[in-house]
Amino acid sequence: MAAAPGGGDPFPSTYVPGETVPTAIVDATILTGTGVRIDGGTLLMRDGKVEAVMAGSAVPDGYRKVDGRGRWVTPGIIDAHSHLGIGAAPHVPSHQDVNEMTSPNTADVWAEHAVWPQDPQFRLARAAGVTSLMVLPGSANLFGGRSVTLKNIHASTVQAMKFPAAPHGLKMACGENPKTVYGGKGRGPSTRMGNIAGFRQAWIEADAYHKGWEAWEKGGKAGDPPKRDLKLETLAGVLAGGITVQNHCYRPDEMAIMIDMAREFGFRITAFHHATEAFKIVPLLVKEDICVATWAGSWGAKMESLDGIEESAPMIHAAGGCAIIHSDDGVLIQRLNQEAGVAMTAAARAGLPIAREDAIRWITANPAKAMGIADKTGTLEAGKMADVVLWSADPFSVYAHADVVWIDGAVNWDRAARNPSPASDFLLGQPGQDFIR
């Protein structure tokens, strides 16, 4: 299939990894994110990459040694659903850029155009071991716009945080939100029927737009190209396969309808987000290879999210599916490891034990898969980005702290240091900015 119109990225990443030194974490308990646990293991990092993960404590010359005794090592935590930077703190109206509530279809907007790198929440997430995150528009609209994937570093521009070569995602939302926002205003759907009709009409237009560009390209680009349309350009990017679909959806009946609609128009849904009732259609989601980004303990805020259980992610995992624990919140992103621990504990109580070396995938390898960056990060394997967290204790414990966080092999958080990580410029000069320990 031909590339989508407007190919390339007019807002390219300028991310540059920080300075590194060859580093060896020795005698730690290592969870690789591949289903492997190594007790008394050693992790080698060099030139921003994971060089080796092995049992034992043999270290080549020239490496800075970090004592891992009594501590744990995991891949960097990855949040597949965040609004940091666009729902920035302090939470005042001028900082809230999550939802462009002007039309049910705002596929033309891009989250990165509103990310404020000085949001203090980035540092709080870094202190909790979060090394990468996908920032999505909100769920007020059928089509909310494009997501952006970020490396969680201190930077002055969003381009400097932008994860190199990570695909955009298209945020879609079914259910209560879009029908409630526009239902009484005569500008959009007021029922779930209207939601699906709105989706289908947009995909019909996008298909025609995409085919028009394909015909122009196959015709040797003779004459003027079709007129660009930013909304249809994003949807055509989905049809061309270059943009993932990140679908806010809670109920199993709606997920099944969205899957049928995706088949109708020839695209695939990468992940259902929130999805509190996904446990009711586990076989379908596994068959379709659709990831489920959910919580353990967040549900009940509205009718469609009323029927949630803590064991949902473990049930999907146990069936061979792609389970993700996400945040959707500036506080929960600071304890994704604990949220995964809640799900793991609930599953064990229900007779469905999940080992730590498997559960760690919910906040590392699986979100990387859903975000289209699993070839680069999410697991501790030779050649992958050295996005690594050294924990003070079992990372699923409420007592565990992220002692050191490396992003591409560079220290971006060190709890023992006088200034563990640069504070937001917004907070410079304010007292107490080294309080995070």
Question: Which key phrases capture this entry?
Answer:
437 residues; alpha/beta; eight-stranded mixed beta sheet
Write the layout of secondary structure elements.
Layout: E1 23-31, E2 37-46, E3 49-55, E4 64-67, E5 72-75, E6 77-82, H1 121-127, E7 130-135, E8 143-146, E9 148-151, H2 158-161, E10 169-173, H3 176-183, H4 192-218, H5 230-239, E11 244-249, H6 252-265, E12 271-274, H7 282-288, E13 291-294, H8 312-318, E14 323-325, H9 336-349, H10 356-359, H11 365-371, E15 388-391, E16 402-407, E17 410-414
Parallel strand pairs: 1-4, 1-5, 6-7, 10-11, 11-12, 12-13, 13-14
Antiparallel strand pairs: 1-2, 2-3, 5-15, 7-9, 8-10, 15-16, 16-17
Helix pairs in contact: 4-5
Describe the protein's architecture and organization:
- The chain is α/β, with parallel strands linked by helices and 437 residues long.
- The protein has a domain at 76-377: TIM Barrel.
- It has eleven helices and 17 strands.
- The protein is globular and about 65 Å long.
- The model has no long low-confidence stretch (mean pLDDT 95).
**What order do the SSEs take from the amino end to the carboxyl end, as H and E?**
EEEEEEHEEEHEHHHEHEHEHEHHHEEE
Portion of residues within helices: 10-25%
Radius of gyration: 22 Å
Count of DSSP E strands?
17
Report the mean per-residue pLDDT as an integer.
95
Report the uncertain regions: none
Q: Whole-Å distance between the termini?
A: 50 Å
CATH superfamily of the domain at 76-377: Metal-dependent hydrolases
Number of helices: 11
Shape: globular
**CATH fold topology of the domain at 76-377:** TIM Barrel
Structural class assignment: alpha/beta
| CATH architect. name of the domain at 76-377 | Alpha-Beta Barrel
Beta percentage is: 15-25%
CATH C-level category of the domain at 76-377: Alpha Beta
Largest sheet: 8 strands, mixed
